[in-house]
């Protein structure tokens, strides 16, 4: 079962600290602090123009590499978290794509996390459907998937 979840990278980066980067702005800050070693003749009349061009190319390359490294680390961390809920997760076009093996197992784990957090209690999945009211189990997951990030608070790193 595939469920598309609306989500932005800012939200994910606030929930998951990977590579020491705890928000999307921090990623941009790390990219902007790159050192560029450019071998140009300073006496050349086009020095500033050549320097700016070379700097921009190096900046773009570093930004691309760092962003991809960060995104890979983020996806790895997400995969680890969602695996405990029987969900394979991928980021595509700034959306999370959840591939759920067994929706009943997934919702049972999600319910355990919510109940463990202690703000409210959900007895059964049928009860959960009724109190929504939710159209189906997919809608429950689509509405409550962010609780996955609370799992470590509730149960630690199991």
Lay out the secondary structure.
Blueprint: E1 2-6, H1 9-15, H2 24-32, H3 47-83, E2 87-92, E3 95-100, H4 103-117, H5 125-131, H6 137-144, H7 151-155
Antiparallel strand pairs: 1-3, 2-3
Helix pairs in contact: 2-3, 4-6
Summarize the structure.
The chain is mainly α. 56% of the residues lie in helices and 11% in strands.
Please provide a written account of the structure.
- With 158 residues, the chain is mostly helical.
- α2 runs antiparallel to α3 and α4 crosses α6.
- The longest helix has 37 residues.
- Strands 1-3-2 form a three-stranded antiparallel beta sheet.
- The chain folds into two domains: 101 residues, no CATH class; 57 residues, no CATH class.
| SSE string, helices as H and strands as E | EHHHEEHHHH
Low-confidence stretches: none
The Rg value, from CA coordinates, equals 22 Å
The overall average pLDDT, rounded, is 82
Structure classification: mainly alpha
The first-to-last residue Cα distance is 25 Å
Strand content: 5-15%
State the total count of DSSP E strands. Answer: 3
Spatial sequence of strands, sheet with the most strands: 1-3-2
Helix content: 55-70%
**Into how many domains do the coordinates divide?**
2
Largest sheet: 3 strands, antiparallel
Number of helices: 7
Q: Could you say which overall geometry the principal axes of the C-alpha atoms support?
A: elongated
